[in-house]
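Good morning C.,

I know you're traveling, so I'll keep this short. The sequence:
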Amino acid sequence: MKAVRIYAYGGQDQLKLEDMPKPQPGDNDVLVRVVAASVNPVDWKIRDGYLKEMLPYNFPIILGWDVSGVVESVGKAVTQFKPGDAVYSRPNILRDGTYAEYISIDANEVAFKPVTISHTSAASLPLAGITAWDVLVKTAEIKTGDRVLIHAASGGVGSLAVQLAKAHGAYVIATTSAKNSALVKSLGADEIIDYRTQAFEKTVTDVDIVFDSLGEEIQAKSWQVLKPNGILVSIVTPPSTEQATAHNVRSAFVFIQPDAAVLTELATLVDSGKIRPIIAAEFALEDIAKAHALSESGRAVGKIVVHVGKP
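The tokens, ready to paste straight into the viewer:
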């Protein structure tokens, strides 16, 4: 099969498209023929070596941890899937990833793909969708009427977080650029803050939940917009517990794991019209370096999808 592997940490030039044997599924695995994958910041952070202390690998490795595809075969202990099923997954980040024509995934990490969207759109959902769910639903325990501030609301995670918050009855305040404000408004945001011209910390108050996907200065300024006992949840850097105490609020850090149950919930929301994936750009597998360059630029509106195989 064709796959993109890296043999050492480094830049985009480390991404090598080559032939390799098709993986053999274990007893509890599903072998998926990959139709589409997507690029997430964790991909190039791993490639660059930023996460080597947290995530140990033996080279060479295949990056990519979003997939939508078709079940090719199943291990002898797998009963919930069969060949031909359309599925999607955010697989275990410590196993080989999805920049390949086939991937072997633990069956417990796989869910049936939403039926109303293409594999291209479905491949954009797992990692970002689980992230948005874990922040808002599991960690912040979002409820109807909550005031939620979502930073970088036009990005891959942010665009889903806006929709998920609205689906739970929240009032959504979103930071984005003026050129993306119409899109973010169409996703359900009640209030738009143009981060280029407006200081959110001076105009936003009484927030129940801050969704921090930027860290650093933005995280530091976000404390003051929270109401007492509100919560700041970051997916970038663990927030300061001292700052949380000083502001009489709570804090949390989220680094997601595979979660087929959440993917099933997300599929239901997609098929009921409450969530729609936003695709920033599409690339062929052989152009994976260009896809990484776009992700690293921080300018993608929505998710970056990679076409791997035929539907």
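Safe travels,
E.
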